[in-house]
Amino acid sequence: MSLRLVKAFGPVDVLGQPILGRRRFGVPVGGAFDEESWQVANVLAGVSIGQACWELSMAQAKFEVVESCTVGVAGAPAPIRLASGLTEASAVFTAQKGDTFVIEPPPTGARAYIACGPVQHPQGWVRRTEEPLHNVTQRHLIRVMAGPNESLIGIEQILSTFKVSRSANRVGIRLEPRIAAHTYELTSTPQCVGVIQVSNDGTLIMLGPDGPTIGGYPMAAAICSSDLGRIGQLRPGDSVTFQLVTAQESLQLREQAALDQQVRLNLLRLALSV
Questions:
Q1: Which residues pair with 214 in a beta bridge?
Q2: Cα torsion 237, 238, 241, 247: sign
Q3: Which of 62, 119, 141, 241 fits a disulfide with 161 by CB distance 3.0 to 4.6 angstroms?
Q4: At what angle do helices 247-273 and 35-45 cross, to 10 degrees?
Q5: What percent of the chain is modeled with pLDDT above 70?
Q6: How confident is the model over 218-255, as pLDDT tens digits?
Q7: Helix, strand, coil distribution of the chain in percent, nearest 5
Q8: Mind listing the pLDDT tens digit for each residue in 6-38?
């Protein structure tokens, strides 16, 4: 990469494509928590949407430019401190070899993505992207389908508003308040990203991309794939409301989200080519 991390306060990772097909060996999928923002950052930098980039989780990070490059920043609105001054979040800029810049923690949302690519514009060029990303602005509403064990828990207990607890990371996000406790001890079964488990004390846990591949807690619901990136932008203290949809509706949401993202990326490419 053309950037070197000088120092950071908070979690910073380099992430790319999820690792598929290895969950049976106990390997979580990993990858960007918010794929929408990850892809946008790469398009801003002028590289493939699947290229690895930096993921900052409510972190402050200082970077040094190793080779002159184009830097794209997307996701949570993290302010960018350049040598020329403070730039508002969600931007693309030209960075010269030896330059340094700082990404500040975002005031809302949780994760910002920083990608780098070949130089495309003169030194000092900066452009903001105006459109806020859906996963940040709409993160408080999560569509879910009933899980395989919803009859044990009662899906109506899930369809409410909760608050993200301080225990929230790439492994899983715990919610408050608790629902009714239970004593079910189930045989460990495969788990997927976005499943909502219910622990014995009634705590709801949304599994993230680094979460366990098997587990024995009842699976009350599963988050629609169209909304998985939204939970990646949730931060402690955020409210989140679950809305029940059918499997058919979930498929339609996924198709529409994929179409919307393709249109967004194409419009960005067009705007940056002008």
A1: 190
A2: negative
A3: 241
A4: 20
A5: 99
A6: 999 999 999 999 999 999 999 999 999 999 999 999 99
A7: 20, 35, 45
A8: 999 999 999 989 988 888 888 999 999 999 999
User: Residue 89's pLDDT is what?
Assistant: 74
Average of per-residue pLDDT across 184-207: 93
* Residue type at position 56: L
Residues with Cβ within 8 Å of residue 74, at least 6 apart in sequence: 37, 38, 40, 41, 44, 90, 112, 113, 115, 129, 133
Q: How far apart are CA 148 and CA 161, in angstroms?
A: 22
- Integer-rounded Cα Rg, in Å, for the chain is 19
**What backbone torsions phi and psi does residue 132 show, to the nearest 5 degrees?**
-70, 145
* Those residues with Cβ within 8 angstroms of residue 135's Cβ, 6 or more apart along the chain or in another chain: 34, 36, 37, 75, 229, 230, 232, 233
- Rounded to the nearest 10°, the torsion over CA 115, 118, 123, 126 is -40
Arithmetic mean of pLDDT, 82-101? 86
pLDDT in tens, 136-150: 889 999 999 999 999
Comparing C-alpha atoms, which of 168, 153, 169, 167 is closest to residue 202?
153
Cβ burial of 16 (10 Å; 0-12, 13-18, 19+) is middle
* Burial annotation 208-228 (CB, 10 A radius, 16+ → b, else e): bbbbbbebebbbbbbbbbbbb
Nearest in space to 228 (alpha carbons), one of 260, 250, 247 = 250
Predicted confidence (pLDDT) at residue 90 exceeds the cutoff of 90: no
Alpha carbons 228 and 206: distance in angstroms, whole number:
10
